[in-house]
Amino acid sequence: MSAQRSTAARPLARPARPAPAPRPSLTALPGGASERALRSRLELVRAPLQARSKIPFLVLCMSILGAALLCALLVNTTMARNSYEMSELRREVSRVAQDTQSLQAQVAEQKASLPETARSLGMVEAEDPAMVRLSDGAVLGLPQEEAGQ
Predict the structure, then answer these.
(1) Any alpha helices (H) in the chain, and if so which ranges?
(2) What is the pLDDT of residues 1-13, one digit of tens each?
(3) HSE-up of 42 (CA within 13 Å, CB side)?
(4) Which of 18, 37, 41 is nearest to 28 (CA)?
(5) What backbone torsions phi and psi does residue 139 show, to the nearest 5 degrees?
């Protein structure tokens, strides 16, 4: 058993890698960039400009915030005013509805007493009433005289 452990713990031998092939040396081609051209491309970098002040940005943010708050206040005030107007109009509608109901009750009461009032004035109900057509003034139906007159 101990013999098995000693062989299992050893790493297996790896085959040796072949040596890399030597690279060819680099040479400048005729007509390529010269040292002088390379130097002209390498220039000093300008120093960065001074950082801008953050005050204009803060003023912009504060003005946007102020405008948003002003708009919210304006909308809230308008909604409150419209709410008061709506409640006043609802009260007026309920008053008009009560007036309409009372007038309808009076009309219904007078409709019920109309035949009695007409009889007390000596009127009788016509059996064949005559009608006048307003478009041309023609009389439709013939009025009949009562026997009592």
Answers:
(1) 2-9, 35-41, 55-120
(2) 555 555 555 666 6
(3) 5
(4) 37
(5) -95, 125
